[in-house]
């Protein structure tokens, strides 16, 4: 595609903007789909336990490293490696919950303590990998194809982006099925409404929470695999979770469709800012969106409004 | 005293000043903020630019650093402090990061992400200690004054206190401004200690550290937060050579404290009352 | 309360007075006779280590700490500090530098050391963060009492540490830190204790521009640089200046945040649409690799990549085929016959190819340079060593012959090498001098 003349006429300039716009939109959607995988797991935990699990990024990293190990040292195919890493991350999530959150949960209902514990866990997980795996970033073998795909000559994206978009849709669809069609899904939805009442109704709350964490961990692992294939794997990869967190807030904490919509909005906002203003402003826009959302509609787009009665 | 030991104490004083500010806001007024490192950054950069580029003496520069932090806190505090609980905490993350990013992008003034080197090392041992002692005395007086009691009222029961006639909005903003001042001064002192500042030094990790130290020491206990700072600073500095393990230990400490003793070292009692009566139990 | 306010005001007034505070001495003018500082050799804290080659602390990120302070009887080593990024984004470069430096130290010690004493390497990991580098340098000087420091490989890092080393009076040699500000401050005055072994960015920028415009004949350049990196910013500036002189046009000048950004599609889209035919990458390895890969994914198959000395062989792992046909201006060519003994020795000692060969070579030669300076100084005294470094003339190192320009502390007249990325490695393409 090289060697294009720069646009000379107004019409050509307009076409250029349109082409850039479409390209950035595609870029944004693909980024947003990865955010969505992370944000949904995040929101799921929030909806049940009402706290922000900052260690979510850790699950992502765990998923990535397990996948890397499976691919490189154990020489498995991507499907096997992926399955193992999802499982592994889910288990790690359950462990985290058991070790760090349950004891606090059983003792007090101040969510701040859980928050700080989650930050501690995220530091612990990150540094375990720094020590064990070394601070060097690792490139995963190119198991996911990255060849360019052209859209009617208007925009180019890579097969990778399409795959990540498709995977996101598949996993989120599976989650939706799980939530709406299975008994545990029903239990989770009930618990999201009111955890204590669900417990009173006979739901095994501890097991429910473990299941929720497992699912969250697995989703994070999918995101982690995509991120590490695309951007190389390193212990601090989980830092991207803060953006997913913003997405979840914008969409409405506790609402899963909200998390998806919020993620897409965020991905688009980032790419459009980077494309039309400058890349440095990207994160600034992200956080400004967060603040604006909180000021204008704190519960986000789809969140429930909770008002206090005096 | 060796230069190294002096350095640790200076760092301790700096962290303690910032922690006191956060403690006022979090422990005594009940507002959880995860973005206070931004105020430190504002103070640090103001003082750095003033002393390096405009040859201002460090003492007014430090105070001006605090003042800039206060001004910013006022402007962003008034609209956002109407948010309660978790929502403010989230907003504070956004605000903290936004401020840091602005500093990072404002290349012409702050040299952006590359950092600002060559700051005169004005934070000597006596200066740091002096600031700490004076600010600590001021803070202790503050929390025992009428204003302090009003803050505690807001923390304990926001609705009841507003019904009782306290101007809760004004109290919250004032509390934020004072805490911003403390953090700003601490940041300015930090710049004078390291001779070099970078926006990434004031990221969410630092903010979390500030809040964690306060919770660790005990929400509602000023002496607790100073104690907490001492412990955490010593842990992070003494273990600096084994830096990966250091962070691991730090993270583990956070988790362990939350699991085992979430009310912190001192609970919500002050050191003096502990010494006088170690086994007192609160009624009710 | 009032008493307190009065106290504060009085304290403030007192602080405003120009105090005879114990400020560390400002850098003495160069001619200063060497003061018998307590830094001189013998009185060294008894931290002597047997200078046996430490087992290759290859991967383990804990390699940075020199052993704890067991008091031993003799104080017979000359301590050289090494600032290396053993973890973080630059880990590949830093680990190679450390290994190469240890190799050099062993060679020197095998031949009798310096001034009859063994050389000891005190390595600190600055984790690719300037803040840690500043701390490390302080510790090296104040606690470990090193007489000279080698490293880091990044301009931004050395610009940050420059005020410290100059204030505390210990020389620092940058291995691959090419920004002019490393050795010369904003006012144009040389920093007495800052040196470098590599060529500088104005020179490098010119080389890149010359190569792109005159050799490749590409007149429409796009630049994608790291806003958080002094090296990147400086190189970009100098490139743009020279490129304009060669009548090239910069059609896109875009930035990203190194260490934070991993997705460059937004910028690459704009570059593609503006019709650039060459993409200049004045950055460090990992991001360049990602950029090239993502560019090809966006279908940009014809654009040529030209970069500077941030090249590292590890980039192939990430970029793969996207890198083929890219050009890199550099200090050293891996096929240079003068360097083969070094590469062989490195491979034998560490059982590893010296992939980041520039860092390896320059780290290795920096240690030899310091050893030579210490010998010429006659004493392991930081100030004498500084003088000796500054006076270096026609010193035959392994990869080049160095003469220091006392006004800038930069080596005079070094050649630039162009590498082409072909068949999975960087290969020598040509030598240029514009």
Structure report:
The complex is a heterotrimer of chains A (310), B (284) and C (434). By secondary structure, chain A is mainly alpha-helical. Chain A contains 11 helices and 2 strands; from the N terminus they run ααααββααααααα. Chain A has a two-stranded antiparallel ribbon. In chain A, β1 (148-151) and β2 form a beta hairpin. Chain A is globular. Chain A starts with 9 loop residues before the first helix and ends in a 14-residue tail after the last helix. Chain B has a domain at 3-199. Chain B is built from 13 helices and 2 strands, in the order αααααβααααβαααα. Chain B has helices at residues 3-28, 37-53, 58-80, 85-105, 107-110, 125-143, 146-156, 158-163, 168-194, 204-217, 222-238, 243-260, 271-276; strands at 116-117, 196-197. Chain B has a two-stranded antiparallel ribbon with strand order 1-2. The longest helix of chain B has 27 residues, at 168-194. Chain B is globular. The relative contact order of chain B is 0.19. The mean pLDDT of chain B is 85. Chain C folds into 2 domains: 76-199 and 336-402, 3-Layer(aba) Sandwich (Rossmann fold); 202-330 and 417-432, Response regulator (Rossmann fold). Chain C contains 12 helices and 16 strands. In chain C, α2 (91-110) packs parallel to α11 and α3 (130-144) packs parallel to α4. The longest helix of chain C is centred in the last third of the chain and has 21 residues, at 357-377. Chain C is globular. Chain C starts with a helix and ends with a strand. The relative contact order of chain C is 0.13. Chain B binds chain C through residues 3-4, 57, 59, 104, 107, 112-115, 117-119, 121, 124, 127, 130, 134, 137-138, 141, 194-196, 198, 200-201, 240-245, and chain C through 1, 4, 7-8, 11-12, 15-16, 21-23, 61-62, 64-65, 87, 125, 127, 129-132, 134-135, 139, 142-143, 156, 159-160, 162-164, 167, 227-230, 233, 257-258.
What secondary-structure arrangement, pairings included, does this model have?
The complex is a heterotrimer of chains A (310), B (284) and C (434).
Chain A (H helix, E strand, L loop, with lengths): L9 H40 L6 H17 L5 H30 L3 H23 L14 E4 L3 E4 H23 L1 H11 L1 H6 L4 H27 L9 H11 L4 H21 L5 H15 L14
Chain B lengths: L2 H26 L8 H17 L4 H23 L4 H21 L1 H4 L5 E2 L7 H19 L2 H11 L1 H6 L4 H27 L1 E2 L6 H14 L4 H17 L4 H18 L10 H6 L8
Antiparallel strand pairs in B: 1-2
Chain C lengths: L1 H15 L60 E8 L6 H20 L7 E8 L4 H15 L3 E3 L4 H14 L2 E4 L19 E3 L4 H15 L4 E7 L3 H16 L3 E8 L8 H9 L4 E4 L3 H13 L6 E4 L7 H5 L7 E4 L9 H11 L6 H21 L4 H9 L4 E2 L4 E2 L1 E2 L4 E2 L4 E7 L2 E8 L2
